[in-house]
Design a protein that fits this description.
The protein is mostly helical. It has one domain. The relative contact order is 0.18. Keywords: Membrane, Transmembrane, Transmembrane helix.
Length: 75
């Protein structure tokens, strides 16, 4: 897998993670979660947790890859 493909995949994963975090926050503040009770809270917490798992490590790795690319001289 080339660096360009890897960076594109990581960016997509990061966007999906952020969207899941936003979905979890929306669900937590909606009437849908209140109607489900505890299951609604668990659903919104699961969205935030999975979004965080997808988002944070991806950001860290992507930062390291971009910093390495910046420090390496061009061919």
């Amino acid at each position: 897998m080339t660096d360009r493909t890897l960076i594109r995949l990581l960016k997509i994963m990061m966007v999906i993670g952020i969207m899941l975090i936003l979905l979890g926050v929306y669900l937590h503040n909606s009437a849908f979660a209140a109607a489900l009770g505890v299951k609604g809270i668990l659903l919104s917490a699961a969205c935030v947790a999975v979004g965080t798992v997808l988002s944070l490590p991806t950001k860290m790795y992507l930062t390291f890859v971009l910093m390495k690319r910046e420090n390496d001289p061009p061919p």
